[in-house]
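Moderator note: this is an archived Q&A kept for reference. The question asked for a predicted structure of one protein chain; the sequence and the answer are reproduced below.
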Amino acid sequence: MLKGSTPHSRFKSLSLAKSSNVPLLGRTRLMAHLQQLAVPLAPTTNYPKLSAFFSSQLWPWIWNYLKGMFRGRYKPYPTYASDGRDGVYTLRTSNNCDPIKIAIAGDWGTGTFEAFEVAAKMSDSDPDYTIHLGDVYYVGDGREVQENFLGENADQFTPVKFPKGAVGTFALLGNHEMYGGGQPYFTEMIGSSGYCDTGAGEKQKASFFCLETPYWRIIGLDTGYNSVGTPILGSIPFIKKIPWFGANCELRPELLSWLSTNVKPQQNEKATLLLSHHQYYSVYEQAYGRPAEQLKDLFAGQKVVWLWGHEHRLSIYDEYSPDQNVICYGRCLGNGGMPVELEVTGKAPPLLFQDPRGLPNGEIGSNQYAVGDGTYAGWNGFLNLTLNLRTMTIDYFDLNNIKLFSESFDGNADGSLTYTLLSHPVLQEPAK
């Protein structure tokens, strides 16, 4: 029996989740709806054959997909009052004395046993706050949000609940929530009756936020709202790179206005951690540089830490900027619940560390993570972030609570950063 499960546990298939990277169709709205169709047909360990898609459910799926295409995005777009403070929350501890602890996971909302274990380990760390970097699979509809994020029974599968922090819980918006239009995210995950709490006596109002201490600023950005391109054509890898067809994850004007009027990073300099769902740069997949272009003036002359998800892997980059819009220490934390991808690369930008377990050039055997269909993936995990006055320490763990990597950033009064690599007991430099 799986550790932590019950005799009646039936989690969603990790091997089904792996199909999000099928060539030509992978990581698109079309593939997400196909995966959703296959969920009731899939056993918990083996991915269904392609013929499972051509069942009596095919036409209902086509109808739902077409409805989703033309449903449009959730409106009106929730934002904050331009009063100089709304959406900016002071970080605190549950006992008002210890360093602030924040547990973060990305691409977690899968309903898999791995997501269940990651959530359990996050809870065991007793965080003051928890943050999800986005993506509730496969299309973020009401049933999936209930079952894969809220921990409510909605189908025949065991529900999995995102852990709450002792003080607050926040969730960013990913592209998968927007594949279904985004309403469950805006009304059940956040919003006046939503799951996420700010720790300031109110719910998370919008898909972006700012958390502050006297020394640090953590800004959650919404790259998900504008992450879905033209139906069908916007799903084809080569065509979706054409601006008219694909999505560029552009930040909404309401968010940019809020940054200027309420957060004021240029007038009130602080060390800064940016959070988003989509990557600013990558050695593996398409990058989304438009948000950094929009943020350029707000963070001019300042280096930041930028943590994102979207790619299903753990990657530690050197200080870098592909376009000099924002210079940052980039970290990809998309390994929360989806099968962790194992491809390797040696191209720029500068990848410093990755998890070698299961990689073709890594050790074989006990270090491989079996998906359940005869193949292997990397190891799922999360991070714990600790704020102790000027020092931000980040510890990365896998789902067995094995520490993989540890680093710290000291925030200076002018917003600049001093970096220290503390240890890398598991992560290794990529092979040259």
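Archived answer notes: The first helix runs from residue 14 to 18.
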